Amino acid sequence: MTSLVPAAAGLATVLGVLTSLLSPAAPTGPAAQADWADPSTTPRVASVLVVSVDGLNPRALRRLGRSRAPHLHRLVDESAGTLNARTQVEMTLTLPNHTGMVTGRRISRDLGGHGVTWNDDRRTPSTVQRAAGERVGSVFSTVADHGGSTALFASKKKFSLWTRSWSDDLDLVVIDGDNRSLVRSLVSDVRSRDRAFRFLHLSAPDVAGHAHGFMREAYLRAVRSTDRLLGRVLAAVERGPAGAAAVPTAVVLTADHGGTPGKGHAEHARAANYRVPFLVRAPGVSAGADLYDLNDDYADPGHGRPAYDDARQPIRNGMVANVSLGLLGLPPVPGSQLGVTPLDLVAP
Ligand SMILES: [Zn+2]
């Protein structure tokens, strides 16, 4: 299931995102039409914030309970979502899975994926395009093509791969290993200006998981501290820019991978590693609805790990790019594979 909207990208470059909200560039052809999110099922917003919590095993929410993770629980209550989404199939590693999130592609180059199979700071291949051996678009490039502003706030240096890959499409990049100061940067950005798309990556649970074991006490403390940071982020998004009304903003929260109690997260066939949350909160989205109830084309995988060619797919973290673009009223990333058909976010 791949689809491109070749005509639309050029067509709408002159439109700002707010303008395109009022008069979205007309998709051309029946295929394009099918892929263009229907506002009655994908509410339109002016801004999307993606929050990826590195190594967030959804079971941590249950372990901590509402009192110790109030903001994550509130986000679950207010989102259409699932705590039983899946990573990409091939790997459960930070850089490969995050690159899948922003490109909407699988990982393996042989499967049409982005080809980023490493998970360190190496500078060769220097870009995602070189890894894939072809032009690779991203949520950043599609938003930028349509006149929207983008920003990346990441807490691991390896994300500089994205800066090199989409240098013209990222208006602001902050890479800061200190999650608190990273969130301060994000909050100050949200308070100072409108942007169509922001991506925030928080590393604390993963770092604690590697040092002390996933789901252990230190890890759960890191999820708690991440929850407090999420509270600041949500408050900033709800207030909007200082002195101006908040624009309708969607928050999409997911994780690159989970983590196995007491161990790491590299074994991609383990449920604790491939199970991730996927939450979408936006004005008009059915609060508390299960994405699998809303979307018959997708099926709750239970404990399973469906392959890409299984008839009914799980919600995957790699759908972040196209879900975000649908909310902004923009077409899918050219060449993307995951979430190309817009998700239904509104209960009938
Ligand atoms: Zn890790």
The total of helices stands at 15
Strands, total number:
7
Mean pLDDT score: 91
Bound compounds, each kind once, are: zinc ion
* CATH H-tier superfamily: Alkaline Phosphatase, subunit A
Q: Provide the number of structural domains.
A: 1
Name of the CATH architecture? 3-Layer(aba) Sandwich
The N- and C-terminal alpha carbons lie at a distance of 25 Å
Radius of gyration: 18 Å
Q: Give the class from helix and strand content and strand pairing.
A: alpha/beta
Q: What is the fold-level CATH name, i.e. the topology?
A: Alkaline Phosphatase, subunit A
Strand order of the largest sheet: 2-7-6-1-5-3-4
Spans of at least 5 consecutive residues whose pLDDT stays below 50 are 1-34
Q: Name the CATH class.
A: Alpha Beta
Q: H/E element string? A: HHHEHHEHHHEHEHEHHEHEHH
**Spatial shape:** globular
Profile the largest sheet.
Answer: 7 strands, mixed
Strand content: 5-15%
| DSSP helix fraction | 25-40%
Q: Would you mind describing this structure in some detail?
A:
The protein is 37% helix and 12% strand. The chain contains 15 helices and 7 strands. The chain has helices spanning 6-11, 17-22, 29-35, 59-68, 70-78, 94-103, 128-132, 139-145, 160-165, 179-192, 204-212, 217-239, 271-274, 291-294, 320-327; strands at residues 47-53, 80-86, 150-154, 172-175, 197-202, 249-254, 275-281. It has a 7-stranded mixed sheet with strand order 2-7-6-1-5-3-4, sandwiched between helices. The two termini are 25 Å apart. The model is unreliable at 1-34 (pLDDT under 50). The structure holds zinc ion. Zinc ion binds at residues 55, 94, 206, 210, 265. Residues 55, 94, 206, 210, 265 line the site of zinc ion.
